[in-house]
Amino acid sequence: MHTFEIGSDFYMDGRPFQIRSGAIHYFRLHPDDWEHSLYNLKAMGFNTVETYIPWNMHEPHKDEFRITAETDFERFLGLASDLGLWAIVRPSPFICAEWEFGGLPAWLLAERGMRIRSNDPRFLERLALYYDMLMPHLAKHQITRGANIIMMQIENEYGSYCEDSDYMRSVRDLMVERGIDVKLCTSDGPWRACQRAGSLIEDNVLATGNFGSHATENFAALKGFHKEHGKTWPLMCMEFWAGWFNRWGESVVRRDPEELARSVREALREGSINLYMFHGGTNFGFMNGCSARHDHDLHQITSYDYDAPLDEAGNPTEKFYALQRMVREDFPDARTASPRIKGTLAPMTLERCGLAGLFETLDTLSEPLEMRHPAAMEDLGQAYGYILYRTRIEADTAGEERFRIVDARDRAQLFLNGRLVATQYQEDIGEDILAAPKPGINQLDILVENMGRVNYGHKLLASTQHKGIRTGICVDLHFVTGFEVFRLPLASADKVDFSRGWTPGAPAFHRFAAVVRDTALDTHLDLTGFGKGCVFVNGFNVGRFWEKGPTRSLYVPHGLLRVGSNDIIVFETEGIYSDELKLSSRPVIDERAGEER
């Protein structure tokens, strides 16, 4: 059985060991692709894989722990071990990772007054129950049990959020009490303020840093913090950023491959690293996160390509080859090999074969809740997707009346008698909407989209993380009462009735069929010509699209396809659509996104 120790260096079986790790998130890849990406990590010359464990994927509903084929981290760790890769695991409660709510489950928000990421007894009780289920699965994969996990992290970048050593100790104790006995670490910005607030160095927990350049300076800061506490530990960058994530409406972030290779070489001459990301993958479904800003939060896109050494589909980029050349030059003992490359379907144009309006098929998708006043998604047992609030109002004038959506997130569309009147987003919500109802009784529908909760910073505790309408709808000066509320999490589109018809200019489901002969090939859905929404491939939600870019396509891994006819349903909310859907062999990028036009 192997041993891993931390002294003045990392030691594997008593010999100095440099950790050359790459981040691959099993939950952002189709499981059919795990082995492919892990093999390429080994082929680049690295020896370790790192992954988070997102709480919201494994306990999506309170007290319902699950490990599905898509989230079977034990299989992922086993594949890594078979390839000779060690593993670093960074479990919840919080992961950041540009992931919805930083990996925290949305149902925690229904516990009003609970202070997450703190020693609040209610939060620790929920975390303890989750760890009761999670930790036994991880414990069996530790190096101390003859497997490949060499190190695990306590919380994540806590010094960039709060300073509460007692809470950090509580998380550590919950892990240790449930069988975790490998070496523990923390990670944060390398400067003293973050390290002081977010480490447990006084408890002999390894403190690591996160950065993407200037390794000599950043490692010097980390080393100074170690020295201040009498430690001569090895230096490690737990997140050496290979690229960056992207947000709607902004330009794609890119980093020069040779510059990255030089920066990684500088870091490896000083210590050990975990390259974040090695393979970024995809924010499938509604799992993208959000960057918190004072007045206008910025939601991240579906692709988590990250400009990483492997692209979103898992194929090597110029960064891969630049890093592999560096490893071969500087680490002749490292084993490198030719990477594996996946193929793609030939470009194809699909004709629309079905169309159904959201309002027409609403009753097949959701059972309405009768409520006097609107309520937030989380208070109604819903975490993600859309929610529709319907009420009826009586016209009081012969002309325009004033409507207001009070206290809602993130994006609201107001329809009067089935016709779109206004779309409001973040800072616009609450402003007057003028519309002329017809004489008598009118139907008012407000469709609200949860575009993703923040994954970093102070707004984790803000009311803005409660999605939907939190207060109410005003007509003139008074709140309206009497609502039907339709929850639309849209985990699938299986219940859409395409015989119901549709209304132009309103949200609708557009169905296409793709005939596939080779299911070993990936593809990309080119959504050019469509406005905003999400797409289902054979019932699986592959993510959001938005015409504002920078991406105009969605990646579809081969594991979602089947031989013969494949069902593709585009849910589009703006009334902007095309009668054709194209399959592309590569991503469709709007390189002008973010520019002034």
From TrEMBL:
Residues 374-488 form the Beta-galactosidase 1-like first all-beta domain. The keyword Cytoplasm does not apply. Its EC number is 3.2.1.23. Residues 10-328 form the Glycoside hydrolase 35 catalytic domain. InterPro entries: B-gal_1-like, BetaGal1-like_ABD1, BetaGal_gal-bd, Galactose-bd-like_sf, GH, Gly_Hdrlase_35_cat, Glycoside_Hdrlase_35. Residues 507-566 form the Beta-galactosidase galactose-binding domain. This is Beta-galactosidase. It comes from Coriobacterium glomerans (strain ATCC 49209 / DSM 20642 / JCM 10262 / PW2).
